[in-house]
Specification:
This protein has five helices and 13 strands. The chain is α+β, with helices and mostly antiparallel strands and about 280 residues long.
Length: about 280
């Protein structure tokens, strides 16, 4: 399970489910019986309110569980012809519909309790979020953003010039192990006058500028739709599938394609990079 697969809409669904669970233990009905003995105000778990429990509270909790569980399932997996998210949306709409008709009706002397009101609000928020998440980009955004790309070290990956032993650019070792410095004003590759002009001739590569380093820096990205990840060697075999809502690390660029690394450490070639979201 990867929590980065959850969206902001899923966060609202989880919050609505928690509110609905709390509301199930609060009074469902409030009796107007001033000056007389009032019966105990029942909550959603009382046997006398049997239709309330499965059609309002359990239906809403099951809906939230199905919607969240769908984020951790492979794309396209279905249960009796429908995906888990579709089943969850249907249960959420049913629970909101039941809550609405329950709060409208009621016998004389009976008022909606705190649990009934909170249950209606929770189911309404649950159903609205389930219906609107696929259509509103703000709700489709990841609930937990991935870490940003790390800036390259200003000192590079290897030893710094001039600090090695002897190292490039440092002092050259003398015949007795001592350090021998270049004379003042001497250019690299030129004979040393103190040695009588016996210095070795410069190599053919001396004085040529070094090849510029690549300007690619690793970054985090997410795909808008499921994308196949092929072998890093260019083979057509698919090794993984990148899912929306999950952050992956791009470690290399090959033309328009990216070499991506999955959460479990597998690396492959992402050929279709259109519409990706950079972290």
């Amino acid at each position: 399970m990867n929590i980065r697969s959850l969206t902001r809409g899923d966060g609202v669904v989880i919050g609505a489910a928690v509110l609905l669970f709390i509301a199930s233990f609060l009074s469902f009905y409030s009796y107007d019986c001033a000056g007389s003995i009032c019966p105990t105000e029942p909550n959603g778990w009382k046997a006398g309110l049997f239709p309330v429990l499965p059609s309002i509270f359990l239906a809403g909790l099951i809906a939230a569980g199905l919607i969240v569980a769908a984020r951790f399932q492979p794309e396209g997996r279905k249960l009796v012809g429908l995906e888990l998210g579709q089943w969850g949306t249907a249960f959420a709409v049913f629970a909101a519909w039941s809550s609405l008709w329950t709060i409208i009706g009621g016998a004389q002397g009976v008022s909606p309790g705190v649990g009934q009101i909170l249950g209606l609000l929770a189911n309404a928020a649950l159903a609205a979020t389930a219906l609107m998440t696929p259509r509103i980009p703000a709700l489709k955004a990841p609930l937990v953003s991935g870490p940003g790309p790390q800036a390259p070290s200003p000192y590079g990956a290897g030893p710094n010039p001039g600090y090695g032993y002897p190292g490039p650019g440092g002092a050259q070792a003398g015949p007795y192990g001592g350090a021998q410095q270049q004379p003042y004003g001497a250019q690299p590759g030129q004979p040393d006058a103190s040695l009588g002009g016996a210095a070795a001739a410069p190599s053919p590569a001396a004085g040529q500028p070094a090849a510029p380093a690549g300007d690619f820096a690793p970054f985090w990205f997410a795909v808008p739709v499921p994308r196949p990840l092929y072998g890093e060697d260019g083979s057509p075999a698919q090794i993984a599938e990148l899912a929306p809502g999950t952050w992956y690390l791009a470690v290399e660029q090959r033309g328009q394609a990216l070499v991506a690394q999955t959460q479990d450490g597998r690396r492959g070639l992402l050929q279709d990079t259109t519409g990706i979201q950079r972290g």
